[in-house]
Automatic annotation (TrEMBL):
Residues 9-157 form the Ketopantoate reductase N-terminal domain. It catalyses: (R)-pantoate + NADP(+) = 2-dehydropantoate + NADPH + H(+). Its EC number is 1.1.1.169. Catalyzes the NADPH-dependent reduction of ketopantoate into pantoic acid. It is an enzyme of class 1 (oxidoreductase). The keyword Oxidoreductase applies. The keyword NADP applies. Keywords: NADP, Oxidoreductase, Pantothenate biosynthesis. Residues 186-308 form the Ketopantoate reductase C-terminal domain. Pathway: Cofactor biosynthesis; (R)-pantothenate biosynthesis; (R)-pantoate from 3-methyl-2-oxobutanoate: step 2/2. This is 2-dehydropantoate 2-reductase.
Amino acid sequence: MSEQAGPRIGIVGAGAIGGFYGLLLARAGFDVHFLLRSDYPVVREQGWHLESCSLGTLCQPVKVYEDAAAMPRCDWLLLACKTTSNAELAPLLAQVAADNARVVLLQNGLGVEEAVRPLLPDSLHLLGGLCFICVHRAAPGKLVHQAQGSISLGYHSGPGEQGAAVLAEGVALLRAAGIDARGVADLQQARWQKLVWNVPFNGLSVVLNAHTGMLLGNPTTRELVQTLMEEVIAAAVSAGCTLPAGYAQTLLKVTENMPDYWPSMHHDYRHARPLELAAIYAQPLQRARAMAVEMPATRMLYQQLEFLQEGAVDGQP
């Protein structure tokens, strides 16, 4: 594929997730533009540097910007920041969006699209993307990809009756870059399903300072992980979701086969960044309570994370 082929793509909030997928899109020849903050000077001079379990070493110059006003208008916009930055970055999406643009929220948690939709023009299409990947930012401009890399994409809202066509277009776009992408008919179910992994592993990695291998290698913490998973599954089922039989055990086996992994919330905590507590914990707990579903272990974990985020523990980063 030649450079400039296909739609123009903007990556907003490009950390590990945005850097990884944006780099693959750029490598495939798409016209990709990155809006960066702290990584801007390094990526401008050196491009992205990726060490990948499946792709080897990739070093590629890319088009980067510090200011959204300098970016061209994009047909596709991938918002790859944490949900804690959505209110700040949503106006920038509207600023750099082409007419009838597609906005994809590559984020975890519940209520994500519902919170962003009112901040966007009605003329833009909104989709959600769930990323199943082990990747982290080791240093400015340097990404380490340890496992997986797929995306489940779902349509949320937009003008007209174009949802199915826009979703198919998005899946095709990602696949053209070599990304394992699939469309999902029920975005909310996909978000609940991803939470079954995110709730235990993100929170426990912070509270216990433990990676996935440590959490599953100890019988007590393994049992706690499974308890948290079962609570999320119970809430998801009450919300009308249909999850595969034995889903918790399936996720445990998948995680056991992954390299030892520090989830993104652990990195946020160690670097004193805001934690995604609202989308990953508060929203599921609120919805579960409305359905009369109790999640005591999840609530306790959420309370511990709130305590840590408020800086009440000596030695917090």
